Amino acid sequence: MPQSASPRPLVGVALVVASCASLPFGAAVAAQLFPVLGPWGVTALRVAIAALLLLVIVRPRPFAWDRRQWTAAILFGVTLAGMNGFFYAAIDRIPLGPAVAIEFLGPLVLAAVLTRRLADAVWVGVAVVGVGLLGLDGMIGADPLDPLGTVFILIAAVCWAGYIRMSARVGALIPGNSGLAVGLAVAAILLLPVGVPGAIVVAGDLHLLLLALLTAVLASVIPYSFELAALRRLPQRVFGVLLSLEPAFATLAGWLVLGQEATPLRMLAIALVIAASAGATLGVRRERRERREHAEGGPFTAPIPLPD
């Protein structure tokens, strides 16, 4: 039976923020493995390690699942494999800033499609402007984007939107993190053909193995677990807008870890996406409060006048 949404959206917001903070540091670690394993090899190894960790920790029992639960978990794994693989393949060809901005079109378009209020549409628009500025900042003074890399990141954007939809469905149909563990296992199986050579290389090098393990924890286990829990507490449209914090955190991580310049245009973009996230959060809290007050007869119900 689907689980009901949590009445405490702030918990969901905190989970999304923590996920967005973890991902860029995982990407920074993964970049150190690119020269040795290549983008698809890093993706396969990262997903496989994350799947093994969660299977051991969660110990799912999928043989008791029904057809709907299995279908959701398998489709979830397909979107995970595509989102991760094509993103790493893209950033091997185009700069990280434009790649993140373009990929974010997936959840933004999803949020726009699912929105039911004018205020939600406004915040989506603010986030679009902010992400667009991040992409513009990444392209100023750089070489033209590689066409194949652009195609890869557009495919990743579609997979990201599918990931949000399937993550919400898995969270509703499968208790705990069992759906995530099985979904990651499905993704690992799909990526197995490109992951075997990398696994052989890493198995003989303890330093590379530790880097791969850290990448799996920071870029898969933590963010996917937190996002799955967040989608049990937040509407998908709000979750999609909150994810606009991810390129902002990526910019911050680039400045702190990689020494990338934080230009005024980039800082303006960060301010816009944070404003969109805050606005979406306040909007869902207000909507829940209004629904509760309506169900209870409003914050104040005047006495009904009796006939004389």
Could you walk me through the main structural features you see in this protein, from its secondary elements to its overall organization?
This protein has 308 residues and is mainly α. It has one domain (9-289). Helices cover 79% and strands 0% of the residues. Helix 2 runs antiparallel to helix 3 (67-91), helix 4 (96-103) runs antiparallel to helix 6 (118-139) and helix 11 packs antiparallel against helix 12. 52% of the residues are buried. Mean pLDDT is 79; it is low at 1-5 and 298-308.
How large is the count of helical segments?
A: 12
Q: What is the terminal separation in angstroms?
A: 52 Å
Radius of gyration: 21 Å
SS content category: mainly alpha
Instruction: Give the fraction of residues assigned to helices.
Output: over 70%
How would you characterize the largest beta sheet?
Answer: none
Order of helices and strands: HHHHHHHHHHHH
Q: Could you give the count of β-strands? A: 0
The dominant shape is: globular
How many structural domains?
A: 1
- Stretches with pLDDT under 50, minimum 5 residues: 1-5, 298-308
Tell me the strand percentage band.
Answer: under 5%
Averaging pLDDT over every residue, what do you get? 79
